[in-house]
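User: Let's play a game. I give you a shape written as tokens, and you guess the letters that built it. Ready? Here's round one.
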């Protein structure tokens, strides 16, 4: 009996051990299965390729298609088409004589190769990959493919086509600075192409062909993922109107060193068009012919093309590709008065009934600062409206003095000066760079406050002024300017809608309404009269800036305007850099160019005439002479940011030029108020200010060359 009991105990232990082993192995098995499932899901493709590599296979890339860029009406601005590379396999072609004879004859028939060319292609007898032709169109490929599919091509071997995609810009140079271009590998450069590169690009697919264990051919395909399409706010028709009018001005009108035009929707700050007069064709962005404008003579240009180093060539091309309206800064002149007055109205420092006495200038500390009316004794007593119409510096200085540095700078910041706008195309200077090119509260001493009130000694970009101006007339809503409205997949499904971003309020609805009427009077009766278009109510403001060094008689003129006055639907900002006339400050290029663009643009945009009684007569619109900003001494270091300003160059060390006689001042289109007779450093940014450097070389303190 004792033995039986012992046997029973032994069997019980064995069962427990066996159960433990079974459970343990089951757990391990579950873990292994789970691990295999995980590996297959996450890295299956990787191990599949390793297996294929052991079995022997061929791999072909299936390229993705880069997304299209479309305007707001569906017009294609940038697209991608399929092209074909002719690939030869000498190893297979030369395998048998009948293969060689048939293949060579086909290549000569369908691609017009010579015997010498074919001999060169087949010289590497062991090669399986020789590119014979690149970028063939479908029409060039189809005849051979039809032949290859017939019985007549039974002995043709080692010929196939490799598919690629080529970026195409159907409208050539239209909106080139907005769109940008691509380089090899679908890398976007400048404009929308660069900023939205990750959306436009997709992922390559791949086709694997390999022999399986039964020596049958098996194919595995990983399909390509195409890029997204971008729908923009650009209107190709508006862009064409702007381009046509600027080219007309450049060829048959006065002409200029550069003309830039920015067209915006004031309700949203969307960009409708942007043009810089020195264009390039994105289909051939490296074409050196686009550089010719940078040289005074044809001989100099030809010498450059022949002898320039790669670095010099890229630097010159960067000047063509650079987007002036986004990347460059300049003194705004009297357009800045718009924001000086708007801020003072918002703070109740002035009202519509305020009056000012202009006697031709103001003594501010040790310096006498002129109004453009200085030479004829001043404007006398002026209302707020008349001060803006006549572009009176004296009135602006009085307003800024009443505001004080803190309030004045408050509205500079609210209107976005001294900071990036955040526009969705690259090239804007960063916050640190922008912060140095305007005077802020801590540097707005009495003289700087006075000159800043009428846009002297501060620097802005076109996109800053355009965005701030939109907020002034749209009820005070400052939106982040943008170009792309939405992102879609290749089937038209919306991936993302890029809603307009309201950043802040600048002024109230009531102040905005007052400003619209004040700006209307500038065009109706004041310095902007030449910008008028018969039958339309237009508001706007002129501006002029003397370029460095002071006294060189070179000017940058501007006009920013909108219509209709009661319900603004479009803002047009025109900048004319160095008009090609003897006395640049007397040019009306900016106002007249605005009028020419607006006259064709308004009907296209269905902006209706609301002022049928308005009889446009600019015969009494007289350009007034320039007067230097200072009489007598000029302040030393009259530069926002001083030596810490990244735009300042050694030019601010040049001797002060005394232009108190009035020979070197700056005139506003009809106002002459933005004058300066001070030294070369009296601008935020100095000679690194893009509006001041005539060298034609890239400005290293701005956005670097891509």
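Assistant: Ready! My guess for every position:
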């Amino acid at each position: 009996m004792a033995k039986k009991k012992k046997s029973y105990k032994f069997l019980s232990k064995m069962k427990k051990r066996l159960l433990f082993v079974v459970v343990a192995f089951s757990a391990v098995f579950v873990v292994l299965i789970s691990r295999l499932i995980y590996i297959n899901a996450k890295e299956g493709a990787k191990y599949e390729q390793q297996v294929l590599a052991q079995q022997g296979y061929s791999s072909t890339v299936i390229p993705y298609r880069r997304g299209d860029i479309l305007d707001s009406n569906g017009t294609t601005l940038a697209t991608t088409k399929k092209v074909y590379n002719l690939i030869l396999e000498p190893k297979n072609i030369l395998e048998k004589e009948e293969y060689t004879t048939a293949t060579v004859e086909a290549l000569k028939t369908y691609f017009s190769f010579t015997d010498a060319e074919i001999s060169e292609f087949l010289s590497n007898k062991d090669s399986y990959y020789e590119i014979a032709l690149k970028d063939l169109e479908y029409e060039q490929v189809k005849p051979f493919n039809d032949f290859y599919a017939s019985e007549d091509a039974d002995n043709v071997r080692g010929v196939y086509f490799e598919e690629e995609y080529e970026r195409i810009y159907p409208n050539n140079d239209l909106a080139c600075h907005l769109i940008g271009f691509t380089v090899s590998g679908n890398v976007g450069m400048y404009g929308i192409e660069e900023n939205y590169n990750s959306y436009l690009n997709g992922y390559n697919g791949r086709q694997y062909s390999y022999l399986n264990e039964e020596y049958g051919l098996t194919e595995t395909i990983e399909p390509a993922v195409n890029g997204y399409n971008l729908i923009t706010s650009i209107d190709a028709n508006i862009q064409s109107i702007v381009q046509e009018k600027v080219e007309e001005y450049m060829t048959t009108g006065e002409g200029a060193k550069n003309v830039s035009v920015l067209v915006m929707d004031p309700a949203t700050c969307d960009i409708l068009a942007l043009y810089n007069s020195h264009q390039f064709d994105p289909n051939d962005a490296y074409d050196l012919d686009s550089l010719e404008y940078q040289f005074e003579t044809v001989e100099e240009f030809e010498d450059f093309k022949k002898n320039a180093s790669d670095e010099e060539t890229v630097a010159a091309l960067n000047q063509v590709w650079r987007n002036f309206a986004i990347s460059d800064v300049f003194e705004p002149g009297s357009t800045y008065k718009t924001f000086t007055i708007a801020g003072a109205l918002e703070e109740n420092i002035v009202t519509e009934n305020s009056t000012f006495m202009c006697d031709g200038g103001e003594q501010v500390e040790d310096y006498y600062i002129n109004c453009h009316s200085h030479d004829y004794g001043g404007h006398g007593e002026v209302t707020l409206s008349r001060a803006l119409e006549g572009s009176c510096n004296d009135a602006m200085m009085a307003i800024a003095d009443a505001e004080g540095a803190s309030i004045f700078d408050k509205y500079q910041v609210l209107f976005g000066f001294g900071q990036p706008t955040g526009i969705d195309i690259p090239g804007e200077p960063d916050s640190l760079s922008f912060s140095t090119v305007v005077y802020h509260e801590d540097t707005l001493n009495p003289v700087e406050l006075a000159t800043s009130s009428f846009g002297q000694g501060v620097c802005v970009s076109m996109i800053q002024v355009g965005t701030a101006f939109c907020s002034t007339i749209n009820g005070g809503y400052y939106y982040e300017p943008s170009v792309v409205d939405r992102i879609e997949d290749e089937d038209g499904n919306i991936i993302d809608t890029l809603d307009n971003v309201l950043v802040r309020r600048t002024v109230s609805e009531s102040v905005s309404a007052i400003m619209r009427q004040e700006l209307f009077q500038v065009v109706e009766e004041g310095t902007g009269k030449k910008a008028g278009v018969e039958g339309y109510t237009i508001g706007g403001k002129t501006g002029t800036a003397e370029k460095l060094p002071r006294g060189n008689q070179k000017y940058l003129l501007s006009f920013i305007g909108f219509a209709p006055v009661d319900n603004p639907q479009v803002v047009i900002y025109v900048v004319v850099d160095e008009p090609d006339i003897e006395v640049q400050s007397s040019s009306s290029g900016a106002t007249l160019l605005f009028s020419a663009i607006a006259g064709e643009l308004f009907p296209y945009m269905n902006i209706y005439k609301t002022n049928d009684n308005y009889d446009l007569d600019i015969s009494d619109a007289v350009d007034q002479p320039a007067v230097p900003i200072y009489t007598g001494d000029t302040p030393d270091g009259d530069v926002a940011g001083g030596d810490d300003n990244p735009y300042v160059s050694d030019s601010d060390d040049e001797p002060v030029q005394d232009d108190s006689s009035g020979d070197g001042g700056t005139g506003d289109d009809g106002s002459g108020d933005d004058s300066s007779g001070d030294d070369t450093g009296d601008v935020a940014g100095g000679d690194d200010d893009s509006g001041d450097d005539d060298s034609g070389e890239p400005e290293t303190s701005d956005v670097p060359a891509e």
